[in-house]
């Protein structure tokens, strides 16, 4: 993102934000409530339009980007849809859609990826339950599993530990550790890093819609400090 500016209802939410996320980064976006953290990651993905500036995903503007299987997005909460409530497995399986052809139903590889995602998030035993009847923390784990099932190159997670118990946070940290070791890129919005802190390579801190601080937090730096 270069010169990113977002306005809502006549109010500036992001102002002149410059941010580049490199391959293999594990970036934490920090700041108080209302600082613009969620707006920033949504603007990076083109989910919120910019009033000025530009953003690119793998060199293309979001409107022209087509290779969405490379990006996994974890929103703050499970969207409430109409119709028959989806099971946990069905929601997680929807993370494979970008990898599927309209002419081909789910394959063995798709089913295996969903199984791995459910296991990684501790949801295997809840796979047949209605996702919308779960607790807020369990629903957050469903959203994380959906992103994992898609096997993207980049994970963008908007406060994935909100409402999640300590044990689940530790399990998520372990999952992110494996992703980082495999060279995946992670952008994580958080109030506090908790068990994720050792994995973070960079932080950016927002206040009033502006980046006020950027810090490298690589493991090597901390070991030699």
UniProtKB/TrEMBL annotation:
Residues of the ABC transporter domain: 6-225
Source organism superkingdom: Bacteria
Keyword Zinc-finger appears in the UniProt entry: no
One GO molecular-function entry: ATP binding
Alphabetized UniProt keyword annotations: ATP-binding, Nucleotide-binding, Transport
SMART domains with a match to the protein in the record: AAA (SM00382)
InterPro entries tied to this protein: AAA+_ATPase, ABC_transporter-like_ATP-bd, ABC_transporter-like_CS, Metal_Ion_Import_ABC, P-loop_NTPase
Gene3D superfamilies reported in the protein's UniProt record: P-loop containing nucleotide triphosphate hydrolases (3.40.50.300)
Protein name: Metal ABC transporter ATP-binding protein
């Amino acid at each position: 993102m270069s010169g990113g500016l977002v306005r809502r209802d006549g109010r500036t939410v992001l102002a002149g934000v410059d941010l580049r996320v490199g391959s293999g980064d594990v970036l934490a976006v920090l700041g108080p409530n209302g600082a613009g953290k969620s707006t920033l990651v949504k603007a990076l993905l083109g989910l919120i339009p910019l009033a000025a500036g530009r953003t690119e995903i793998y060199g293309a503007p979001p409107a022209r980007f087509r290779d969405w299987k490379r990006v996994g997005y974890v929103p703050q909460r499970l969207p409430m849809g109409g119709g028959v409530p989806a099971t946990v497995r069905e929601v997680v399986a929807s993370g494979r859609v970008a990898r599927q052809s309209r002419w081909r139903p789910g394959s063995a590889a798709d089913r295996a990826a969903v199984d791995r995602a459910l296991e990684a998030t501790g949801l295997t035993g809840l796979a047949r339950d209605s996702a919308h009847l779960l607790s807020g923390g369990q629903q957050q784990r469903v959203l994380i599993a959906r992103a994992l099932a898609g096997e993207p190159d980049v994970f963008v997670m908007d406060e994935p530990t909100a409402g999640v118990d300590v044990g689940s946070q530790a399990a998520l940290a372990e999952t992110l550790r494996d992703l980082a070791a495999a060279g995946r890129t992670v952008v994580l919005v958080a109030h506090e890093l908790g068990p994720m802190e050792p994995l973070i390579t960079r932080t950016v801190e927002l206040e009033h819609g502006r980046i006020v601080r950027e810090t490298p937090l690589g493991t090597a730096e901390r070991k030699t400090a």
